[in-house]
Design brief:
- This protein is α+β, with helices and mostly antiparallel strands.
- The protein has 18 helices and 14 strands.
- The chain has helices spanning 2-28, 48-53, 55-66, 84-92, 102-113, 123-133, 139-159, 172-188, 191-195, 199-209, 225-249, 259-264, 276-307, 309-323, 335-338, 342-354, 388-392, 451-468, and strands spanning 69-74, 77-82, 99-100, 167-171, 361-365, 369-370, 377-378, 383-386, 422-424, 429-431, 469-473, 483-484, 491-492, 497-502.
- It has a five-stranded mixed β-sheet with strand order 1-2-8-5-3. The chain has a three-stranded antiparallel β-sheet with strand order 4-14-11. A two-stranded antiparallel ribbon has the order 6-7.
- Helix 13 (276-307) packs across helix 18.
- The longest helix is centred in the middle third of the chain and has 32 residues, at 276-307.
């Protein structure tokens, strides 16, 4: 007993000594060759709790004290933050030999997406994979996607219990999670995958999605319940895709022109065809990428429309003004008609501005990085962090940034780089995309190639919902819910309920 008390006392003394030494080092011996460090009481833990609870609040507060460049400790790792447009450019367009995404995100993403794809392969191979996937994101492909997306939303409204009757209340994140997995599967995956979106597949998707728990940045293979479910789900989903591919190769399924068939015909630059297992894992990645951001942003759109019904009615009137025939009937949507709906586009832009699904984008520093116009150098081993949501929610770029105001985009274009700033990272020419305070899809070589599909998906979903319903808050409440930062993808705190009322049918 005495020895136990002695050991416990010794451990306590050591812990106190570490805390004291940590405080003294920060206050008396700061490293002036590196950016200032956000004060923290506990070594290793650092600012993990305050950052994890509300990243934007933490980053805005640290910027107010230290400026756009500072470092904080996150679970034993030094994270150097560079905010603003200059910071976005510094992080997104860092040289591949200087900064690395794979080592940061690989532990979290590789068990979810699977072997041989995304961060579980050399960057050059990833660029080839992105080039393959762009097949499903051409203008011709987007034209076909519009009708598929519209039909999925219409079918959901007709068959869903959530929209039974003339009016009701729904937890909108649940509804949008279902709608967006259907639209992503129908448009990007092909008919066999869409037909398999039963309860079993939905449960597999849910378990796989659970692998994005933040703890997996440091404990990706720990035998935790959510990791066990993740690994089982990944294997089962991969086998589902592989069985579809096998049936197609055997000629049991008529030839199609969808993404799976395209990938089955692709070969890497070394001449090797894409293995079926990698095709399957790419399709898992595409499904998750096509659903995650759209689900969260679509939820925020509906929540804001319920909070401001006037905008919902403006959207409906825009469709009547731009698309309706002489009898006031609205036709099926097409890409060319969706492009006429400028307020719909502005609603999506404004919601993405306020509610970027990924609040922090990191890279691992591989070589000493001098910070331009300072005397600081970021050493190897640090992570560097950009947060485009900070500039998108800053007064200097967007007056009254906390107000959801789609009309702020009426006479404003998204700042884009000119042709001299276009670059090909291996998957086609794209804008370097970092000279704007609005970067909801990142920039540089890892810029999301699915942004055009995301905009279109959200605009079509919004248009169909507005055609069918009016929205308002429950019990006359004001405002929208807070943000849940507990997962990798920021989303509305649930329950996030809104009231819906079905619009009268023309001629009824």
């Amino acid at each position: 007993m005495l020895s136990f008390l002695f050991l416990a006392s010794l451990l306590l003394v050591l812990c106190v000594a570490c805390v004291v030494a940590n405080i003294i080092r920060q206050l008396l011996f700061p490293n002036t060759r590196e950016p200032p460090v956000v004060f923290h009481w506990l070594p290793w833990l650092g600012s993990a709790i305050t950052y994890g609870k509300d990243p934007y609040k933490f980053l805005f507060a640290a910027r107010a004290k230290h400026g756009d460049i500072f470092t904080f400790v996150l679970l034993g790792r030094n994270v150097t933050v560079y905010l603003g447009i200059a910071g976005n450019d510094f992080v997104f367009n860092g040289k591949e030999t200087h900064v690395n995404a794979e080592e940061i995100y690989g532990p979290l993403c590789n068990p979810v997406f699977g072997e041989g794809v995304v961060y579980d392969c050399p960057n050059a191979k990833l660029m080839e994979q992105k080039k393959f996937v762009k097949f499903g994101l051409t203008t011709d492909a987007l034209k076909a996607h519009v009708r598929l997306i519209e039909q999925e939303v219409v079918d959901y409204i007709k068959s869903s219990r959530e929209f039974n009757g003339p009016s009701g209340i729904v937890n909108i994140p649940t509804v949008m999670a279902q709608i967006t997995i259907f639209t992503a599967a129908s448009a990007l995956q092909g008919p066999e995958v869409r037909s398999k979106l039963t309860n079993e597949f939905a449960n597999l998707y849910h378990d796989l999605d659970g692998g994005f728990s933040p703890i997996n940045f440091i404990l990706p293979h720990a035998p935790l319940p959510h990791n066990i479910k993740r690994d089982r789900a990944q294997l089962k989903m991969r086998k589902i895709y592989e069985s579809i591919i096998a049936e197609r190769r055997a000629g049991k399924i008529p030839r199609t022109t969808d993404m799976i068939s395209h990938l089955m015909q692709c070969s890497y630059k070394d001449g090797h065809p894409v293995p079926d297992s990698e095709i399957a894992n790419m399709m898992i990645t595409i499904l998750m990428a096509g659903q995650h951001n759209s689900s969260n942003v679509a939820s925020w759109i509906m929540l804001h429309l319920a909070n401001e019904p006037r905008i919902c009615e403006e959207l409906y009137q825009e469709q009547l003004d731009q698309l309706a025939d002489q009898n006031g009937n609205l036709p099926e949507l097409e890409l060319r008609t969706v492009e006429k709906l400028q307020l719909h586009s502005s609603v999506v832009k404004e919601t993405l501005r306020m509610h970027n699904a990924i609040h922090s984008i990191m890279r691992l520093v591989k070589q000493p990085l001098p910070v331009p116009k300072t005397t600081w150098t970021i050493p190897p081993g640090h992570a560097i962090l950009a947060s485009p949501g900070i500039s998108a929610n800053s007064e200097e770029y967007f007056p009254n940034p906390t107000k959801w105001d789609p009309h702020r985009w009426d006479n404003r274009n998204i700042e884009e780089d000119d042709e001299s700033e276009m670059v090909d990272y291996g998957y086609g020419r794209t804008s370097r995309g970092t000279k704007s305070p609005y970067l909801p899809f990142g920039g540089g070589r890892h810029r999301c190639i699915g942004e055009k599909f995301a905009y279109l998906n959200l605009e079509v979903i919004t248009a169909v919902m507005v055609r069918n319903f009016r929205f308002k808050n429950v019990d006359g409440r004001e405002g929208v819910p807070g943000t849940d930062y507990s997962t990798m993808f920021s989303r509305p705190l649930e329950p996030a309920e809104i009231c819906w009322e079905r619009r009268p049918v023309k001629g009824a």
